[in-house]
């Protein structure tokens, strides 16, 4: 079982080919979750989608891989002996250990892809940390 929420272990590459929807050779750097596959595939196949199924439909993103309005973080969590929640959206990864009792981490994926410099206590980045805290409350 993988219980380390660092970028290399949380990332899953996806390849989606949808004739008439995707452009050949197009790529996107936008963040999505595996949960987003179900609503996307049901939409593309013109099947019913049930509200109880989680995830966000990526069909618009498949049509336009640089969709400016797509700003959805992806979340990972480990529950058990230690509770860890991590959110990632493009540039930033924010991780909280046991409700912050064991700490909080914020990494700039552009300047620190190896996640060596924790920026969570930087007053200048407090707004980014607060955004992830709000998103977690909505997501969990």
Primary descriptors:
four-stranded antiparallel beta sheet, Arylsulfatase, C-terminal domain, 2 domains, alpha+beta, 4 helices, 140 residues
Would you write up a description of this structure?
The chain has 140 residues and is an alpha+beta fold. It is 22% helix and 16% strand. The protein has a four-stranded antiparallel sheet, with helices on one face. It is globular. The mean pLDDT is 80.
Task: Compile the SSE list and pairings.
Layout: H1 7-10, H2 37-44, H3 59-63, E1 74-78, E2 84-89, E3 92-97, E4 103-108, H4 126-139
Antiparallel strand pairs: 1-2, 2-3, 3-4
CATH topology of the largest domain: Arylsulfatase, C-terminal domain
Q: Extract low-pLDDT stretches.
A: none
CATH class assignment of the largest domain: Alpha Beta
Number of separate strands: 4
Given helix and strand content, the structural type is alpha+beta
* Estimated share of beta-strand residues: 15-25%
Largest sheet: 4 strands, antiparallel
Give, in spatial order, the strands making up the sheet with the most strands. Answer: 1-2-3-4
Quaternary: single chain
Using the alpha-carbon principal axes, give the shape: globular
**CATH architecture classification name of the largest domain:** 2-Layer Sandwich
Order of secondary-structure elements: HHHEEEEH
Please tally the helical runs, counting DSSP H or I stretches of 4 or more residues. 4
Residues in helix, %: 10-25%
The average pLDDT score comes to 80
Tally of domains: 2
Instruction: Tell me the distance between the termini.
Output: 21 Å
- Tell me the radius of gyration: 16 Å
């Amino acid at each position: 079982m993988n219980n380390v929420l660092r970028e290399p272990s949380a990332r899953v590459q996806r390849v989606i080919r949808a004739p008439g929807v995707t452009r050949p050779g197009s790529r996107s750097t936008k963040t999505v979750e595996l949960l987003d596959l179900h609503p996307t595939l049901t939409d593309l196949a013109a099947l019913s989608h049930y509200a109880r199924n989680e995830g966000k439909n990526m069909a618009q993103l498949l049509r336009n891989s640089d969709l400016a309005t797509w700003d959805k973080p992806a979340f990972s969590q480990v529950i058990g002996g230690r509770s860890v929640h991590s959110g990632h959206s493009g540039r930033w990864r924010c991780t909280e250990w046991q409700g912050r009792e064991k700490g909080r981490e914020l990494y700039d994926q552009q300047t620190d892809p190896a996640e060596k410099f924790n920026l969570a206590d930087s007053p200048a980045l407090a707004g980014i940390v607060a955004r992830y805290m709000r998103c977690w409350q909505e997501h969990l």
